[in-house]
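Worked example

This section walks through a single chain of length 710. The input is the sequence exactly as stored; nothing has been trimmed or padded.
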Amino acid sequence: MKNQKKDEQNVNKKTEDLQQNVSSAEGQFLTTNQGVKINDNNNSLKSGERGPSLLEDFILREKITHFDHERIPERIVHARGSGAHGVFQLYESQAEVTKAGFLNDTSRTTPVFVRFSTVAGSKGSTDLARDVRGFAVKFYTDEGIFDLVGNNIPVFSIQDAMKFPDFIHSVKPEPHHEMPQAASAHDTFWDFVSLVPETMHMTSWVMSDRGIPKSLRMMEGFGIHTFRLINEEGKSHFVKFHWKPLLGVHSVCWDEATKISGKDPDFHRRDLWENIEKGNYPEWELGLQIVPEEDEFKFDFDLLDPTKLIPEELVPVKIVGKMTLNRNPDNFFAETEQVAFHPGHIVPGIDFSNDPLLQGRLFSYTDTQLSRLGSPNFHEIPINRSVAPVHNNQRDAHMRMTVNKGNTAYHPNSLGGGCPFQAMMKEGGFTSFPERVDAHKIRNRSESFSDHFSQTKLFMNSLSEHEKRHMIDAYAFELSKVNYDHVKERVCFNLNMIDKDVAKKVADKLGIDIPKKVDMPLNQNIGADENPNNHQPKDANSVTAKSDKLSMTAHNKGDIKTRMIGIICDNGVDETSLNNYKTALEKEGADYKIVAPKGGKIKGNNGTEMKVDENFLTATSVVFDAMFVPSGISDVVVSHEVSRHLLNETFKHCKAIAVEGNGKELLSNTNIPTDKEDPALLIDKKPADFVKAIAAGRNWNRELNPIVPA
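Given that input, the structure is written out below as tokens.
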């Protein structure tokens, strides 16, 4: 009995000890980890509203440092990545605006390493999650490393780095049960979005088809932030960086994305790897949007606001060079996993702006590499090494590779002959742009950052009908996963400030009413109580402008290079029918796979043996861009449920289908209507017509009459 009582006492004491570490924030003030009450958790400390962020901001540093070290060793964001080596070639010198050597000398070929990634998911998540895609490029220039660390979306979700940990925490799996994985369709994300209206622009991009790209090779890339270019005379221009894919910009539809995630979660990674191995080297052109220093304030948005883009109609993108990815990594961990990017890795001729999100990233990236790679010597890992010589007085630390000779590890010195020397500007020494800063230390946000909805409206206005339809469906799907009506109502309220038609359609699908006003929790608006920016953002429904470049339809190149076509056939296939189409596809740079009931080989009607690439056990339509059924297919193919499903699903996903000869018998066994005009359904047409139909893009009008089950 005594022992039992003693055991109970021990259990109770253990419970009490554990309870001491349980924290409930209900009714409490927000504090630092040192217990200091926080007055403003939305804005970093700056020199003036539009000035640079200050190193003394202990609240920002504590918050970012904790965030950077939350995961070991996997990246906190962008954990799921794919990489490739390549080269960058300049078309024409940009000496007029920058002294950066790789942007001046057209005879130089600059090596690059690129890492594409999803943001929210872990390393083991699917490639086809609805998400932003990272697009980070490491230039190994003669003057040092330049990292262009961007995304496939031109704007960011938040304006100040102070909010970055909050944004990522909201989109990550919820901490009490670690669900859902690699998905924004849950309570905490939309709660945050509904309370922070500045997120609406980027969120709308993610809810569009841009959030589910067809291929990493078919994405645009953006540097997001406004940087500076500095020329030899010290003159500054503002710049935004763009990557334009030569294959065009393409997506999958949502039903495809969910099925690909189940059938082949490595779809993007496999697609990039296999095409490089085949010699189908992905290519992007580098574009610059250049704004003279004197034009900084001529726009109705702020260049320093990372939630804003510059419409190409206002500042055209100047194409200056081409990047080609031509080699896969030899070892995934050593290269793709250990590569360390940093927006603070710049070279002479490129400099920062006072974008408050960029300013926070300049601190964050070094800090997170220290945690993830374990040492300040991460620059010595081969994939991160500069091709320019490295000489400084830094020594020691974990995993030091360099053997430094001599007895001086300080500067200035005379014992080492004064080496290494400081470089004058004319000798290539980096100097920061001497921007004048004369302002009060303040936690605030510029009034010019306060319009959160006009550019979101611009984006929605610019979408084609099917793109807008998909975006509305995506909002409705994601919000249907939210368990709190007040969160749904706040999101719809914000949407109503942007586009009343979009908001109404989303609300109707959710079965809710759009509120006339919403209550915001205490101090939840932008800034603290005294902040003059603590106001309702203006209604953007009056915005009528559009920007054609924001629609994906503007980026269809009209060709079928590297597209994958499924050919359904079996023994006895008509070789003439098959070969005519194969020849036409190969001529246009497309690829194909033979899909048959069984694996191994099949024989054509002339006795030619052909390898089967996919059998009916493994075949899925979602990995193909179109389907062809040649003449001479067997009765097994005509009647098989898999071949019927392949065509039904291809039709449902609005892709081109061609049939010849008795291939029509299989078509008649499907649910596909043949009595309506459909430019992407070709019966006994020429191979050239099939090529043209694929190049034209999907026939999205099929979605208006969704009668085909698949």
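What to look for: The chain has 18 helices and 20 strands.
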